[in-house]
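Thread: Modeling a multi-component assembly for a lab meeting

Hi all, long-time lurker, first post. My supervisor asked me to bring a structural picture of a complex we are working on to next week's group meeting, and I have zero experience with this. I have the sequence lines for every component (574 residues in total). Could someone generate the structure of the whole assembly? Inputs are pasted exactly as I received them:
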Amino acid sequence: MEFANLSLTEIIELIQNRKVTATELVSYYISRIQKFKAKNAVLEVFDDALLIAKEKDDFAKSNSTLPLLHGIPVLIKDNISYKGHRLTCASKFLENYVAPYNATVIQKLIDAGAIILGRTNMDEFAMGGSTENSAFGVAKNALDDSRVSGGSSGGSACATALGLACFTLGSDTGGSIRQPSSFNGVVGLKPTYGRVSRYGLVAFASSLDQIGPITKTAEDTAIVMNIIAGNDEKDLTSSQINVPDFTHKLGNNISGLVFGIPTEILNLIKKTKYFDKYQKLFNYINSQGGILKEVNIPHYEMSLPVYYVLAPAEAASNLGRFDGIKYTKRDESAYSIDEIYSFSRTKYFGEEVKRRIMLGNFVLSSGYYDAYYMKAKTIKNLLKTEVTKALDECDVILMPTTFGEAFKIGEKSTDPVSMYAEDMFTIFANLTELPSISIPFDKGVSGLPLGLQILGRHFDEETIISVADYFQKNYKEKA
Amino acid sequence: MKNISDRQIEHLAELSALKLSSDEKIKMKNDLGQILGFVDEINKCNTAGVNYDETEITFAELREDKVKPGLKQKEATANAPKTEDGFFVVTKVVD
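Re: Modeling a multi-component assembly
Sure thing. I ran the full set together rather than chain by chain. Output:
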């Protein structure tokens, strides 16, 4: 039986109706991961997965009702803790690290019956937009070996696209779920900040990080969110706001829904070669009774520079814990405590990580703190105010996920500024803490997918998931 | 492009607990200069009357002050490169 092209929803139905066993699923995905080894999307298949699958099958024999994700194999980004299993953040620094506890999302998946199959490739410590910064080699695009898979959750997005598991988890600090999802033609959600617990996620920029699902369909996104969302006493920033049934609005049409298009975004889209594709989509929305409305986010263009102050500042602090004492690696030539710190960090951090730590320490250092860090924090607040006002006038906001299709491997890796500019459309949702989903909506000049982002009000994932689902089911791209 | 001095790069490397070779210093100077060049755009933004961002997320109430099962000392130190009797081993700190 072939499962690679089936959605999570379809596989759940098969396993719940005893048409397939957990062992068959796990064996299938393991051989498929082997088949696509050259993509370098998966760093490790956990060797206990088949054993757990057998336990699931035994459980199914003696129980008439099964938990929702019973026997469902999941791949996780290599920065999410799964007790007793390796976690490296695709860094030499953590090469032999074994997670001593479960992340809350992992515990929730396990409680729902899922099988954690393995860990996926990423940019080192989630810093990058192409997975070229992985210490273990680049993850290639699912559809084109010469192109990047995107990043930083490049392995997860590629794995979902190739059907190497039923779905995957990623993390998103500035677009790290949505951009690779766009490049690989799959669906990626960055939930509202605080919607999903970050406990057990290795911190990059704590005020921006969120864990989210990468799936084949928007319907699958809703199912995974129903499992992983919710308050967690182990994450002080996780919200106590009520968690809805995220599948609740699926099937709604878009008639009467107000789609906000920020003027500032429209001007950016006009500069890309895909303006006509968006116009086609806008016409379609009109034809379905959706209402298009131009809104304003006057300081939108500030998001990129603001992000590249705040994210490195937080990263510089968070990565201070890697000192050569607590986590697996130490440079043995060190003679003093200071040398343990600096020799170990110099030897085991990659180039991009060092660049961001240096940048973060620059904006936090005496004499620059007010001009950079405080100024950026203030503009972040301004952007939040502006988008809240815009969302008073519309229900959702539309924007591209990226400027275009997945770029070539090596095309941007030598120029950090052009790589950072890739995040132009995605970082806004992180800075404003809004939920945002990326879905494939059309194809570019090379026939590769283009992603559309739908942003919603705080904690209104339900609406954006249902709009995504509607587009996926009804909007036929002309490739 | 923002001009970063050699002294600044050395100071930042020290703050970051990183050692840079002379080639790396030149590259880092150029990279940071370019990045800060575009980051400097934020200075053009008029933020008069705007408050510093105070996250409006309602922080969860603090949990009850009660002992719960956590990591044992052995588990917490299991990933350290060097330990002895459950303690982290470092080089001599005082000469």
